[in-house]
Amino acid sequence: MRRVRVRASGRVQGVFFRDSVRREAGRLEVAGWVRNCPDGTVEAVFEGASGAVDELIELCRGGPGQADIDRVEVVDEDPEGVEGFRVR
Fold it and tell me: Which one of 18, 27, 86, 88 is the catalytic residue?
């Protein structure tokens, strides 16, 4: 079990970034959340199998569709046992 907090910057709002992350998290059975931040970044928490979490991190690095990613910060955290995935 792995938990990470991810912050993506660049052109990440208004490009279906959150919805793409939500769909992929569901497919990979990863719990957590994703949200737009007031500073224009997108923040997410992913908790699940290490390989599945790694796949979501790679999605954030590449971005969906018309996203243009400048930087992705990843910080490991202690797992909390969250369930489900939601867009905040």
Answer: 18
Pull the structure tokens for residue 63. 């971005």
2 in active site: no
Q: All domains of the chain, ordered by start, with CATH? A: 2-80 (3.30.70.100)
Active site residue 18: yes
Among the listed residues 27, 36, 71, 86, the single catalytic one is 36
The predicted-structure confidence for 44-67, as pLDDT tens digits, reads as follows 999 999 999 999 999 999 988 789
